[in-house]
Amino acid sequence: MRTAARKRAREEISAAIELLEKLIALQPSMERESLTGSAYKRLALIERAAGSAQRENAAIARMLGHYEAAERLGIERQCSNLFYPALNRMAAQLVLGTKTRKGPGLDGAAVARVRTELETLARDAPDFWCIAAQSELSLYEAIAAGELAKRQKQLAEGFSDLHRRVDAPRLWTSVADSAAFVLPRYRAWAKQRKGEGRAADALLAVLGGFASRDKESDPK
Q1: Taking the domains of the chain in order of start, what are their residue ranges?
Q2: Is 146 left (phi over 0), alpha (psi -120 to 50) or beta?
Q3: pTM of the predicted model, to two decimals?
Q4: Is 177 helix (H, G, I), strand (E, B) or coil?
Q5: DSSP code of 14?
Q6: What is residue 98's predicted lDDT score, i.e. its pLDDT?
Q7: Residue 2, Cα to own-chain centre: how many angstroms?
């Protein structure tokens, strides 16, 4: 992304954030907090592309705060699809956690709650998002445990099984983007751990392939 394009993107996202935060001040909701968290996530990716680690981390910290708020509201109001802000909150925690040598971590009770919700949705109202989220949760657990290489094959099989059933690149782009948000930072942090970097690259390649828009024009 060129400098002018980054500047324009920052301005557009900042304007959206300002509007969303005004709406939250008037009446907070899980959806509004999640949208604001998503906007900060996009801003963080812009700063990553610009090579500004300080600004990237500042945006991720704001992202984390909004997704935490969304999750709290979702629990209080018993909202559906609570897994969405929860998974994004975990992603932000994992990325910020890679700044220290202690490494990232996840709260076991929150992981169990999200898994239960996803299992219920997969049983009662299955769709692409809740099935993909099960694999995303497993990916985050592997990262938190520092065992991506050990679990890479199982993770790839989970994503591939869903891809055999739903191969729409426009859906997989979101999954690939979420992985691309977390895995490069983990790869850098875990570079001294045997096989972790290769496992991260392999999963990014798999998901990037699923998201490739060239497939939309392939003959069936």
Answers
A1: 1-79, 103-220
A2: left
A3: 0.91
A4: helix
A5: H
A6: 58
A7: 24
